[in-house]
Specification:
two-stranded antiparallel sheet; 8% strand
């Protein structure tokens, strides 16, 4: 498809979005760009202190609700890299970030608990593992003293699989 026909050239019939700088490419929202070929850096968007405070608040609320930086950034209308950059230089923001992650974790635990109590077996298994990981874990640890102290972990293996591995590879231990 020709670019002169007013479509985006992708064959889907959608109209072309207007270009702010006449070179067929749109600059990032709020940013300016030079000719793409000259590799002129795109300046960072400058925020007033009030705007930055509001954006950080929206980010923390999104992060708290959904538990991911991507969702927090979407809620605040910023790039995730901006949030990471702010966290590096703003100790208070970093502390709020950690609190938001903890709040999201608590929300998820509450949701899983509710599902487990409503009869969701998988949710129940996850909750038991969270409450008592030593009792409900998915691994078997075997400790055996030889000439030196050796610890071998077989995560996710059944006792029979462990016995076979020991017989095949080590030939040193007898697992009961």
């Amino acid at each position: 498809m020709s670019k002169s026909n007013g479509t985006n050239g992708k064959g889907n019939g959608k109209p072309k979005k207007p270009s702010a700088n006449g070179n067929g490419r749109r600059p990032p929202e709020g940013g300016k760009t030079g000719d793409i070929k000259d590799k002129t850096p795109i300046p960072r968007k400058g925020y007033s202190d009030d705007d930055k405070a509001a954006i950080k608040k929206a980010f923390i609320e999104g992060l708290s609700e959904f538990g991911t930086v991507l969702h927090g950034a979407e809620a605040a209308g910023i790039n995730p890299d901006t949030a990471y950059r702010w966290r590096k230089v703003d100790a208070e923001f970093a502390q709020e970030w950690a609190g938001a992650i903890k709040a999201a974790q608590n929300n998820l635990e509450r949701s899983m608990y509710e599902r487990a109590m409503a009869g969701d077996t998988t949710a129940g298994i996850f909750m038991l593992k969270a409450f008592d990981p030593k009792k409900y874990r998915d691994r078997v640890d075997i400790h055996q003293k030889t000439e030196g102290n050796v610890e071998i972990r077989f995560a996710g293996k059944s006792p029979e699989q462990i016995r076979q591995i020991v017989r095949d590879r080590l030939g040193l231990l007898e697992v009961n």
